[in-house]
TrEMBL record:
Protein name as it appears in the record: GPC5 protein
PANTHER family noted in UniProt: GLYPICAN, GLYPICAN-5
Protein location: Cell membrane
UniProt source species: Urocynchramus pylzowi
Signal peptide: none
Domain of life: Eukaryota
Family: Belongs to the glypican family.
């Protein structure tokens, strides 16, 4: 799952970077770092880091606004000092140059990434539970019962006689009583995984949200450009007027592309994650009764004697 997440994130990041390189070349180089930070934050969020989608997206737009303002809206600005850049970052929060697009991006990503984050955390928890029960310590009584079941027939020279099924079940259930108590919680855990995978595949589609990031950013930049004069007037009042080159360049001729290539790669990543989801939950549902039936699983096969054959019942051969 993590490999599939990373594949989708890399695809979405490359797609977003291509947007700047193709449509907003004057700011492409400087926008590379904010884009990288955005997708790093998204990746950390999915992995369970103490961060939010909203903070990641708004931090990205805070970093983006100085670039949009100085490279697209007023491309003649020559003095982009740290103080002026910081003023633009702070002004972004007040004048909202990207309209509703930044908030919409937060809403869409929050819905889709939540299920992925919860699934990632649930899988980590499941691994901890499995690892802890895999090395469960046996009590002294259990060890004695296992030795009696396996080796006491040897004292009578019966080295090929195996335990009876019922006898084995009694011993194993006694040994694994504490482990079998996980049954109810394990069933609930499987149901939770099923719910989360369905959420990922339903309306909160992770793939669609990630692949649409470039489009949301594109629309946000367009909105800022269309409202350039009003933004400039407000920024001049708050941050002052920066130095300009003679003959300020117009940004009207910058036309963003309608689509960024890479659809085939996205479809492959999308299909991969969908297949993994289906295979995974199908497999996990088959293990729903694992902790309840663990004694039966252990008393199956070569360990015991089945049918009406001769077997050891703990006291004698029957």
């Amino acid at each position: 799952f993590l490999e599939a997440f990373e594949s989708l994130l890399r695809f979405a990041e490359n797609r977003t970077s291509s947007l700047f390189e193709t449509a907003y070349r004057p700011m492409a180089k400087e926008a590379a770092e904010p884009v990288k930070e955005l997708f790093t934050d998204i990746s950390l969020y999915i992995l369970g880091a103490e961060t939010t989608v909203e903070s990641a997206v708004l931090r990205f737009f805070d970093s983006l606004f100085p670039l949009v303002y100085s490279r697209l809206i007023n491309p003649g600005i020559t003095d982009l000092s740290e103080d002026y850049t910081e003023c633009l970052r702070l002004t972004r929060q007040d004048i909202n140059p990207f309209g509703h697009y930044s908030k919409n991006m937060v809403t869409e990503l929050s819905k889709s990434l939540w299920a992925s984050r919860m699934l990632s955390q649930a899988l980590s928890l499941g691994i901890e539970v499995i690892n802890s029960t895999e090395h469960a310590t046996l009590s002294k009584e259990c060890s004695r019962a296992l030795v009696k079941m396996q080796y006491c027939p040897h004292c009578q020279g019966l080295t090929l006689i195996r335990p009876c099924v019922g006898y084995c079940l009694n011993v194993m259930r006694g040994c694994l009583a504490s482990v079998s108590e996980l049954d109810a919680q394990w069933r609930e855990f499987i149901s939770t995984l099923e719910y989360l995978t369905n959420e990922m595949a339903a309306s909160h589609e992770l793939e669609m949200a990630l692949s649409g990031i470039w489009s949301s950013i594109n629309e946000a930049i367009l909105h800022a450009q269309l409202n350039g004069p009003q933004l400039s007037a407000t920024v001049d009042k708050v941050c002052g007027q920066p130095k300009q080159q003679e003959g300020n360049l117009s940004s009207a001729n910058i036309v963003p592309v309608k689509e960024v290539t890479g659809t085939q790669t996205f479809v492959m990543a999308h299909t991969s994650l969908n297949n993994r989801r289906r295979e995974f939950i199908s497999y996990m549902k088959r293990s729903r009764t694992f902790y309840a039936s663990i004694a039966e699983r252990l008393c199956d096969g070569d360990l015991v004697m089945r049918d009406s054959s001769t077997c050891w019942n703990g006291e004698d051969v029957v």
